[in-house]
Design goal:
InterPro entries: Anti-sigma_ant (IPR003658), STAS_dom (IPR002645), STAS_dom_sf (IPR036513). This is Anti-sigma factor antagonist. Belongs to the anti-sigma-factor antagonist family. It comes from Photobacterium jeanii. The chain is an alpha/beta fold and about 110 residues long. The protein has one domain (about 5-105): Transcription Regulator spoIIAA, CATH 3.30.750. Helices cover about 35% and strands about 25% of the residues. It has helices at about 25-35, 55-70, 80-90, 100-105; strands at about 5-10, 10-15, 20, 45, 55, 75, 95-100. It has a 5-stranded mixed β-sheet with strand order 1-2-4-6-7. Strands 3-5 form a two-stranded parallel ribbon. The chain starts with a strand and ends with a helix. The model has no long low-confidence stretch (mean pLDDT about 95).
């Protein structure tokens, strides 16, 4: 999985640099979250701006991160239309907020 991790304020930003978040990518995503879980600040921001497709494995990996990071906020940034619709369809948008930019997500943690 190609990704970049950096901190901005009290947020840890995980930018996924892949076009597909599916069964092939999900195990690597879970491994990154498990490896970095102790380093993640109070808010994990998933930058999904490059992800054009997400399947149930991708959703499952995001939910696994949500459970693993219990007590920490998780949000997504700039999901493509298909990904946003999937989050709404599965009602994950009720658990994980969506923002237009990393700056907008970071601004929620003051």
């Amino acid at each position: 999985m190609q990704y970049e991790v950096f901190n901005q304020g009290q947020c840890t930003i995980l930018q996924i640099k892949e076009s597909r978040f599916d069964a092939k990518l999900a195990p690597a995503f879970r491994a990154v979250i498990e490896e970095k879980s102790n380093e993640i600040d109070s808010h994990l921001v998933l930058d999904l701006s490059e992800v054009r497709f997400m399947d149930s494995s991708g959703l499952g990996a995001v939910m696994a991160a949500y459970k693993l990071l219990k007590g920490k906020k998780i949000s997504v940034v700039k999901p493509q239309r298909a990904v946003q619709e999937l989050l709404k369809l599965t009602r994950m948008d009720k658990l994980i907020a969506s923002y237009e930019s990393v700056e907008d997500a970071v601004a929620t943690v003051a």
